[in-house]
Amino acid sequence: MKYVALTEEKIEIEPLFAKLIDPKYGAINTFTGTIREWTGEIHTEKIRYTSYKEMALKEMDRLATAVEKEYDASVVVVHRLGELELSDIAVFIGVATAHRAESYEASRMIIEELKKRVPIWKEEFDTDKIRWGGSSNHEN
């Protein structure tokens, strides 16, 4: 099972986690990326995420499919778009596998590849200026 989505609504973790529960799997690993206030000396006030939605969903689906096959896994990937405040959830990744090592590996692979391949950009509203990030350089 895989589920990928982009949303402008608040990400609710519990229903996404529920999609991963299956007697076939003994390990569920989740990653939740939130908006942080400080990145080194940079003080962030809020972030706006935008995307080339059609391509982003295709890439997210490809990534989830690859993980499903490589790890015999169930995968959930949801990224939020729009304006997010500090501590808001920007991304949720869940991977269910038979054993824990694979669930950790697969979860890490998804977030790293998502940041490289998926056309989602962020506009950081910091106290000193606005900074732009992209699919290859945003830090969640």
Automatic annotation (TrEMBL):
Source organism superkingdom: Bacteria
GO biological process: Mo-molybdopterin cofactor biosynthetic process
PANTHER family to which the protein is assigned, alphabetical: MOLYBDOPTERIN SYNTHASE RELATED
Protein name in UniProt: Putative molybdopterin converting factor subunit 2
